[in-house]
Structure formats: C-alpha cells, structure tokens
Specification:
mainly alpha, elongated, single chain, 6 helices
Length: 157
Amino acid sequence: MRWVVFVHVAIAFWFVGGLIGRGVTLSRARSSADIAEVGSLVDLAGRFERLMVIPGSMAVFVAGLLAAWAEDIPLWGSASGWLAASIIVFLSTIPLVPLIFLPRGKVFEAALAEAQAQGRVTVELTAAFRDPAVGFARLYEGAAIAVVVALMVTKPF
C-alpha cells in the first residue's frame, strides 16, 4: 500500500506548486502598473487556484487520510500526535474561505472590473490587492501548509 503514500505525496507537490504559482503570479500582478498585464496575471492566478489549489487541497487531505489508513497509523494515537496536529492545522485553514477569501474576492473582482473599464490601475484595485485581511489569510495559509509539511516529514511526536 506504499503507492497510496506516493499518491498522497504527489498530490501534495501539486497542491503546494499551485500555492506557489498563485502567490508568485499575484505578487507580480500587485506590482504592475499595466492594467492589461494585471488582468492577464490575475487570470493566470485564477487558473492556479481552480486547477491546483482548490482540488489539490481537498485531494491531499483525502489522500492523507487514506495513506494513514493504508499504513495503519491511528489518527489520534499517542505515537501519531504529528498526524493529529497536522489534521488540526490543515483544517484550521478552511474558515479562511468563507470568512475572508470569498467575500474579499468579490470586492477584488469588482475593483478589477472597474479598473479594466477605466483602462488603468485604480486606487481601489491597489487597495484590494493590499487588503490586510487577505494578506493575513495568505500568510496564515502558507505558514499552516509549511507546518503540515514539516510535521509530515519529521514526525516529531
């Protein structure tokens, strides 16, 4: 059943690759003064999101549970505290979607559409790019995934 673990790791690479691709693309879009380039980069970031991040997050979690089952690792056992901690940290990112990403994403989309209609990067679009709640959520998401990867690799407790 080692192939289940391999599939879990492969999906994790896919998911993390999507997070990195989305982050790099949005960083470049945030710093651009060309609205056409911003639009193209935001579209590309959306593709990373739809093709890698969203399905990857769900698939890596399910594959991780299957890998634990295949390896006969108890989810909440004393010898697998790293797994329980990983599950808790991973699941802690879920509320970011309805509380921050979806509502702030609508504000961002409206600001982007208005900027594209005006043919320039607007103050509202710049503000939407620099939304502190979204910045916090992206930072938390990245840190949480880094912690999960570290726990999965090192199995410290």
